[in-house]
């Protein structure tokens, strides 16, 4: 459910700075309704798996 992964590699950050904007895929922003539904779905799954006390806001968001 995590879409982005951080890396420590300086070469990957250098590559991202040198690549042209036309080569990178542009992200499409979700509507508020879509994001709300996504958060609710993730929350339900985590609560079912780990329980209310075992789930953090950071995991959901």
UniProtKB/TrEMBL annotation:
InterPro entries: Homeodomain-like_sf. It comes from Streptomyces sp. SID7499. Residues 1-33 are annotated as: Disordered. Residues 7-22 have a biased composition (Low complexity). Coiled coil: none annotated. This is Helix-turn-helix transcriptional regulator.
């Amino acid at each position: 459910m995590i879409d982005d992964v951080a890396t420590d590699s300086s070469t990957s950050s250098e590559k991202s700075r040198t690549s042209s904007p036309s080569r990178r895929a542009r992200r499409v922003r979700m509507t508020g309704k879509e994001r709300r539904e996504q958060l609710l779905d993730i929350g339900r799954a985590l609560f079912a798996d780990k329980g209310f006390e075992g789930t953090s806001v950071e995991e959901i968001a």
